[in-house]
Amino acid sequence: MSTFIPLATVPANETPANAGRRRTPAQLQRKRELDKASQKLKRKQHKSHVEKLETSLRDAREEIHHLRAKLQDLELSFSLVAGHGRDIPGHSISAVNQLMQTKHPVSTEIGNESLQPANKASSLRAEFPIGRCRCAPQAHKSYSDCFEETLFAILIKIDTQLTPSKPIPAIPEITDVLFLRPPGNPVTKVMYKFLRNPKLPVAVQCAAYLLAYRLLRYRFFPSIQTYRDIPEWLHFTDAQNNVPHPLYIDFVIFPRLRHAMALGLVNVDAFREAFEQDAANGVSINWPASKNFLATNNSAVTFTPEFMQHVFQYHNWSMSLDFAEKYPQIAALVTVRD
């Protein structure tokens, strides 16, 4: 049996509640026109938004293309200047090698073994002039003095300036990392002076820049946050905390080597130029050469999250077998890749 539900009826003398909402033909026509205009405006706004996105994407692609072209130009110019067998103006390669052997003997020892390259005839190329101070003209007797006085001068300026410095971002801009513009803050000034090394592959240079940038950022602007932004394996060792040592040692990547250098067991000052070249040739972050490490973010070029994570993991850093064979005492203190 079905149940009958009677429909509500409206008495003849009453007006339905919605009778007053009924539109006249003119009002309906006006509503249709307004709806049509609204839809047209929405389509126009959507089209404008899409065009802006396309413009931003096109600009980002052009910037990436520009950066790649810059990198190719830099690598080409460096390869032309730094070819094997090219002499430093005024000094032949053989004369420089002889000078390194006779004028810069290595006296520092680890245990009972002298710390010196297994092969002393390490060529010095044109982009690394003889001399350790990075000032122009040279104003310091050693690399260590140059580095420390540069940092102290910046620290004094930060502490004595009347207006507080602007916050330094945790991630530097690509144009600073690739040294495509003059430095704009205290951290990038130090990086610009000391980290420009044409021998480093681009990915390694970017990775080394990121680590040193975080350390300097904490040095100049110490806080809980800037300290947390430093990878744990770059935190100070016991020797760094308790033994006076040159400041540049704090920026050595490998903890055991950093610890030994702070204790005075390792000293590369006597052959720094050759050591820097050999280290630049041997260091790797084991990042696939075919894999991109740049991305676009709001039309700006930045590092991919995967690359950032890769750089801050200690096990991705290593030295080559050639470096290990040339510096066997140091090889025991670093990671050597197979």
UniProtKB/TrEMBL annotation:
Residues 1-52 are annotated as: Disordered. Transmembrane segments: none annotated. InterPro entries: DUF3425. It comes from the Eukaryota. Signal peptide: none annotated. CDD domains: bZIP. This is BZIP domain-containing protein. It comes from Dactylonectria macrodidyma.
